[in-house]
Amino acid sequence: MDSKDSGRLLGVLGGMGPMASAAFMVRLTALASVESEQQHVPAILWSDPRVPDRPSGYLGNGPDPLPWMQNGLMHLVHAGAQAIVVPCNTAHLWYEQMAASISIPILHIVQAVIDDLRRNGIKQGRIGLLGTAVTLRLALYQRMLEANGYKCVMLADDDLASYCTTAILQVKANRLAEAYTPARRCIDLLRHRRVDAIVLGCTELPLAVPHEIRPDLGVVITDSIDALALAAIDWHAG
């Protein structure tokens, strides 16, 4: 095999939303421990923001996003990807259907978050969950976290709508600075409930909470973008 074709090639099913997938690519680079640019993870990004809204689609209130996601997956497979990541938490409600439609593995974002909690020394305890209302209502995170010995703590519905959903929508509209205040309110509400860590379980939320301020928040923050990037780096190294 020619050297230019050697190694593992990662596929990234992005565009959901486009800022989150762009941020994933940045963090995939920033978190790598390398000595030269040639040692970074080779990756192909398929970023299609035309994918219909995932929460609405899952509830039957809008077009089905699954065919659009499967189209992106097939393009990545045809381009030579050997594993795929999807930097969108709500898209993982279709994880089984997506995984069954291709012959290469899809790294699961919730497992990546669990691995990151352990990496941060949080092997059990109370985990504050933030994400879209649909992701939380359908227990995407809760099932896997509770199976691994964690107790899940969530905001009241009114607070979720007022603060978490607002922060997510601000990021989707490219208003990152305006997203910080409602996102910070979510973190403070959960921190006051004595959680051991908080999961930013929507890939818009990490963009609302800058990395440089996180050490001052008084709680461990597990970022689903960073967790998935680290999982991809581990896959590439393996």
Walk me through what this model shows.
The protein has 238 residues and is α/β, with parallel strands linked by helices. It folds into two domains: 3-108 and 227-237, 3-Layer(aba) Sandwich (Rossmann fold); 110-224, Rossmann fold (3-Layer(aba) Sandwich). Helices cover 47% and strands 14% of the residues. The chain contains eleven helices and eight strands. It has a four-stranded parallel β-sheet, sandwiched between helices. Strands 6-5-7-8 form a four-stranded parallel β-sheet, with helices on both faces. Strand 3 (83-85), helix 4 and strand 4 form a beta-alpha-beta unit. The chain is globular. The two termini are 19 Å apart.
Strand content: 5-15%
CATH architecture of the largest domain: 3-Layer(aba) Sandwich
User: Averaging pLDDT over every residue, what do you get?
Assistant: 95
Q: Which class do the helix and strand fractions yield?
A: alpha/beta
Order the strands across the largest sheet as they lie in space: 2-1-3-4
Order of helices and strands: EHEHHEHEHEHHEHHEHEH
Quickly name the level 1 CATH class of the largest domain.
Alpha Beta
Tally of extended strands?
A: 8
